[in-house]
Fold this protein.
Amino acid sequence: MSQVYSLCAPGQGLSCFACCPPIRPAGYDHAAHQGSLRRLLADNTAAVSQGRMPGPITGFWCPGLGFLDRAGRQVGCLLHPARHQGQDLRGPTGYAAKCGRESCAPARAFAELTPAAREALLAPCAGMDSFAFSSPRLNPVMRLLAFGPKVAAAAAGLRPSLETLRGWAWLWRAEEAMGWLLGRALGSWGAGALAEPGLNERLAQAAGRLAQALGPSPPLDPGQALEELAHEWEARCWRTLAGRRRARPAELARWRALVERALE
Ligand code: SF4
């Protein structure tokens, strides 16, 4: 959980706890275990409110996680400095530093959006409790943000409702790593393409053409880390398309030159 007006706690009664604690199995979703977790959250909340500070995190559960409101709709860190006048009480969990560093692709994309775009994407989330808001399965806005800031900003411009977002097949089927390519594509296809049926197939065809043009990856992976040469969204896309973690700057320039043709 991090700073004010982050996706973690964007206000309007919304809060995310998908990465809490920061040691979950891949694909884990709190919403799938809501019944049992609600009991644990209530126990934690009662313990902390009575001054019983939690011990270390064990397994995949954090004893510092609880309800932030009386209605039991908002879940978050009971020990976070934002709740204790800047004092960080997470030390006993053993994960204070890791929790402080935690970040996710949707939160980083959200941070790159304009305030107007953020508002447009939070509007469909109105009324969601933390289980729903945090869940990439239940909340299409979380899915959308995972595609990166370009795609999220284009979607925000359409001011989609929750039902509209749920109906975008590509959002559930396309690879998140293709978000950078999709963002580039929208430059020529137009933001309205996000609402068109068949976008997933169109994007997959473009990605296939590009992967073919890139050719096979060499046995060694020469050059610099892709994250040093490109923004994280672009680096993630090339890692998937080229099967490479590293590249020489001239290679990356060649790959970029192939994009426009693949999108035609
Ligand atoms: S999963 Fe992302 S948005 Fe949710 S609390 Fe963690 S960093 Fe914040």
About this structure: The mean pLDDT is 93. Residues 34-49 form the longest helix (16 residues). Residues 1-167 form one domain. The chain has two domains: 1-167, 169-264.
